[in-house]
Amino acid sequence: MINKLVEKIVKQGAPVVVGLDPMMKFVPKHLKEAAFEQYGETLEGAAEAVWQFNKAIIDNIYDIVPAVKPQIAMYEQFGLPGMAAFKKTVDYCHEKDMMVIGDVKRGDIGSTSEAYATAHLGRVQVGSKSLAAFDEDFATVNPYLGSDGIKPFLKVCAEEKKGIFILVKTSNPSSGEFQDRLIDGKPLYELVGEKVNEWASECMGGKYSYVGAVVGATYPEMGKTLRKVMPKSFILVPGYGAQGGKAEDLVHFFDEDGLGAIVNSSRGIIAAYTKEEYAEFGEKNFAEASRQAALDMIADINGALKSR
Hints:
CATH superfamily: Aldolase class I
Radius of gyration: 19 Å
Strand order of the largest sheet: 1-2-3-6-7-10-11-12
Shape: globular
Oligomer: single chain
CATH class: Alpha Beta
CATH topology: TIM Barrel
Number of domains: 1
Low-confidence stretches: none
Order of helices and strands: HEHHEHHEHEEEHEHEEHEHEEHH
Number of strands: 12
Helix content: 40-55%
Strand content: 15-25%
Distance between the termini: 29 Å
Largest sheet: 8 strands, parallel, barrel
Mean pLDDT: 95
């Protein structure tokens, strides 16, 4: 899947991923009213509104954006109906030939880690059949438990030719409480990056490994260092836009050929209609506003890459 992701980025000229994190406050009123009329003010009604919101955005970006990144917590909060909406979203993206990065941040050991890997990337044996559950193309993984938590994912990645993005340096302000701590003179995030590079070498897809890394856009100097530490890994870069990451700060996350990284924007795209610069679209045309915001993001990042 890493090879397909690279191919789609090159073909579409868009090193970006849209985070499908549909908080109810972002869902337009007319979608919620229609869903509640059908299902009532229930978890089912909320999940239907979320699904219709996602579908409209996907319909408007699939031809310009190579991948989406649904954050599973935004669906879990609506219980089983929410998880059904998550699965419908994954399947619909695949119908549109979009790549799906499941932002699930799993991290455990042994059989539990194996089950997480199976649920999101692999196949589970049910009687005589081998079935895919959520079936994302990539998943985010927390490395805090060490190799015991990562190796089950490496096994599934090798079997299914799918990928993971391991948290290395996250974009949130308090990440430094742990990730910046010095150990033997090096920050912890750099040591994690070195370990990611080891894992990456065990699971290569081509130029890049099935093992990628998450490095926040809000820490460009650290991203520059980690790009060198993890030359085989694709970098997923959250924090662009709403969290303060700027395109000109991200150029060092990429290799010289403009590949090696994919930048995420969530509410900057899906809630674009609420911003002043896209107000002309109006709430009813929220998905068209999302498309324009995605086009603007692509142009911004490509412009920075060309001028570096």
